[in-house]
Amino acid sequence: MEILLNKVTFTYGEKKILDEINLSVRKQEHVGILGSSGGGKSTLLKIIAGLYEITEGTCIVSGCQDLDSIRKQVAVVMQNTSLFPMSIRDNITCGHSMSEERISKAVEAAQLESWIDSLPEGIDSYVGERGGKVSGGQAQRIAIARAIAKDAPIILLDEPTSALDDETAKAVMLALENLTKGKTVVHVTHRVETLWDCDCIYDLRGGKLYDTKSKSSI
Ligand SMILES: Nc1ncnc2c1ncn2[C@@H]1O[C@H](COP(=O)(O)OP(=O)(O)O)[C@@H](O)[C@H]1O
Ligand SMILES: [Mg+2]
């Protein structure tokens, strides 16, 4: 199993958000997790991303349990990407040295090529404070290019198109298809229609995960 959660319980202060969650995801499997707002979807994804220390249960990602190692195995695209006040290039590489070929492949797959070509300074254009000079769709595609360039085996998506209008969301979906091809994917959302190619879909309700078909908790 590429991702294995066993009896993971998570609380913010006194408030129990996740209650003995079990989840197993095979290599290259695409899993969707549906749930209403406030149900704990982002919290669950952040645990799988190695951003939160869990107090109960185990979370094993690509065979790793320590947070630093887990973070190297995953690339995350969130709902609202805050870009760094740097160039598009630096936002994609995050300061890691990468070949031009790797960067341009990521730009192309993230559907950013024609927009970047239209900018006077191209990929070295500055995105502004908190990405203020780019639209929401462009910011999401930069985040997708960053995830593609990282080339991690596991892709975690947290409502990556929900802040976008339909037309913009379509272009971002194409980029997401390129990002997720051949990867292990966990995609959390409150909208079932955004789960376009999942092998299985679970519901997150009351801190528990349910199989959408059998209705029993897993
Ligand atoms: N850092 C935090 N500190 C305290 N409570 C939080 C924090 N983050 C989220 N919560 C609470 O945890 C619950 C689940 O949040 P979240 O995982 O963001 O749900 P979802 O992504 O499904 O909307 C919500 O009630 C939210 O208010
Ligand atoms: Mg959320």
Automatic annotation (TrEMBL):
Q: Name one Pfam family in it.
A: ABC_tran
What is the name listed in the Swiss-Prot or TrEMBL entry for this protein? ABC transporter
**PANTHER family the UniProt entry points to:** ATP-BINDING CASSETTE SUB-FAMILY B, ATP-BINDING CASSETTE SUB-FAMILY B MEMBER 6
Q: Which residues form the ABC transporter domain?
A: 3-218
Taxonomically, the superkingdom here is: Bacteria
Q: What are the GO MF terms of this UniProt record?
A: ATP binding; ATP hydrolysis activity; ATPase-coupled lipid transmembrane transporter activity
| InterPro entries xref list | AAA+_ATPase (IPR003593), ABC_transporter-like_ATP-bd (IPR003439), ABC_transporter-like_CS (IPR017871), P-loop_NTPase (IPR027417), Type_1_exporter (IPR039421)
- Keywords of the record: ATP-binding, Nucleotide-binding
The answer, when asked if ATP-binding is one of the entry's keywords, is yes
Give the source species.
Anaerosporobacter mobilis DSM 15930
Q: Which PROSITE patterns match?
A: ABC_TRANSPORTER_1, ABC_TRANSPORTER_2
